[in-house]
Design brief:
InterPro entries: RNase_H-like (IPR053151), RNase_H-like_dom_plant (IPR044730), RNaseH-like_sf (IPR012337), RNaseH_domain (IPR002156), RNaseH_sf (IPR036397), RVT-Znf (IPR026960). By secondary structure, the protein is of the alpha+beta class. 39% of the residues lie in helices and 13% in strands. Helix 13 crosses helix 14. The chain binds zinc ion.
Length: 417
């Protein structure tokens, strides 16, 4: 929506008026009509990155989470009496919420303060909220619109380089119940007497053939004894839950099954070693871990060193840092929780917090060490930074920039032992 490329310019002007309103007449074209239908979807999944605030409707546009009218439950007949644009609550590049608005909506200041304003005038930008760079590419649009099927946990185990394709195909057909066993053929109308070719007693079904038949059961029992496991199968999926419970033994079993055709490494435990030896498989031991001792070094006199760190998992993210001077004295530390961030965002937040604290405390020579190479790269190439952090990021770079910097910055990658 904010692209300056010719194709984006043509598309926008064909279906939008004044950059926002969708044309209200029918276009006699399958292509343009389809694009027109999707404009609402694009706008619903975009949000504004605040610059001057002149282009953003204060209550109806998304710029600090959902639209404020929706969050604060403000009816349209009340909105017309309130300030219209976001620029109406910005003064001298700072948030300035009129007292009557703060009284009317007590949580408004908290919501607004979460948005970082740029410290120099910038235009407002409408960004696609589904990715980090804020640009809606054809690939993003395709991924957004296509059907998302559930990811099968066992698919990666079957389809991997170490398994011959013929075995992968067989396992895949078993899991999807697509093998042409007698019961399947009868379902399709073939009239035939069915008999299991292994035990010659029961009729042939997929589950009987692989799990219930005395012959198959004997094989499973032998495997269970070899792996020291208790095996019980009620359905096909049970085999993969068993893999999860005894992942190591089963992976080794997998390696055993593939024999010497695989180059997969063993885990290095004595259990795996003895199992592989029992199956007469050549052991590929893992590379030994090399340990390197790294000792923290104090910064030069007059400099403050900050070691920052960020971490993220699917549930929570956080960043932290410790400031020390040239005598290695602890000056201060910080740790903060971040909502829904990637590992890079967490590392960048640690970096930015360090600069903001140095600015607040008047420390002029700051040496930052981060264990993330991406942070060091983001300092050189700002396009690596997610659009949601760019205002804060550019504010920090302004403090340490080449023109009138208030902080001298030296950033290095810390090598962890
Ligand atoms: Zn049988």
């Amino acid at each position: 929506m904010n692209s300056v490329e010719d194709w984006a310019f043509i598309l926008k002007n064909r279906v939008l008026r004044n950059g926002k309103a969708v044309i209200n007449y029918h276009v006699y074209s399958s292509l343009w009509s389809s694009i027109k239908q999707e404009v609402t979807t694009v706008l619903d999944n975009s949000c504004w990155k605040v610059g001057s605030g002149c282009s953003i409707d204060l209550w109806t546009d998304s710029w600090c989470g959902n639209a404020l009218a929706e969050t604060l439950n403000i009816p349209p007949n009340v909105i017309i009496w309130l300030p219209l644009k976001v620029s109406d609550i910005i003064q001298n590049l700072q948030w300035h919420i009129p007292p009557y608005l703060a009284n009317l909506f007590p949580i408004l200041p908290n919501l607004v303060q979460q948005v970082v304003l740029p410290i120099e005038p910038l235009p407002d930008v409408l960004v696609w909220s589904g990715n980090d760079n804020g640009l809606l590419s054809l690939k993003d649009a395709y991924n957004f619109k296509r059907n998302h099927f559930p990811v099968l946990s066992w698919a990666k185990v079957i389809w991997c380089n170490d398994v011959p394709p013929s075995r992968s195909l067989l396992a895949w057909r078993i899991m999807l119940d697509k093998l042409p066993t007698d019961d399947k053929l009868m379902d399709r109308g073939c009239c035939l007497p069915s008999m299991c070719s292994l035990c010659k007693i029961h009729s042939e079904t997929l589950f009987h053939l692989f799990f219930e038949c005395d012959f198959s059961f004997g094989l499973w029992r032998w495997l269970a004894t070899s792996l020291n496991l208790v095996l019980q199968f009620q359905s096909m999926e049970d085999i993969w839950s068993l893999c999860d419970r005894a992942r190591n033994s089963f992976n080794q079993c997998f390696v055993c099954h593939l024999g010497n055709h695989t180059k997969a490494l063993s885990s290095g435990t004595i259990t795996d070693f003895s199992m592989l030896k029992a199956f007469m498989v050549t052991v590929h031991p893992p590379k030994p871990m090399s340990l390197k001792e790294i000792i923290w070094q104090p910064p030069p006199p007059q400099w403050i060193k900050c070691n920052t760190y960020g971490a993220s998992n699917p549930v929570a993210s956080a960043c932290g840092g410790i400031f020390r001077n040239s005598n290695a004295d602890f000056l201060c530390g910080f740790a903060s929780k971040i909502d829904m961030a990637s590992a890079l965002c967490a590392e960048l937040c640690g970096f930015m917090t360090a600069i903001e604290i140095a600015e607040a405390r008047g420390w002029r020579n700051l040496w930052i060490e981060s264990d993330s190479m991406l942070v060091v790269n983001a300092y050189k190439y700002s396009n690596l930074v997610s659009w949601s952090l760019t205002n804060r990021w550019f504010n920090c770079l302004k403090l340490v920039g080449s023109v009138n910097p208030s902080i001298g910055l030296f950033i290095v990658r810390e090598v962890l032992a």
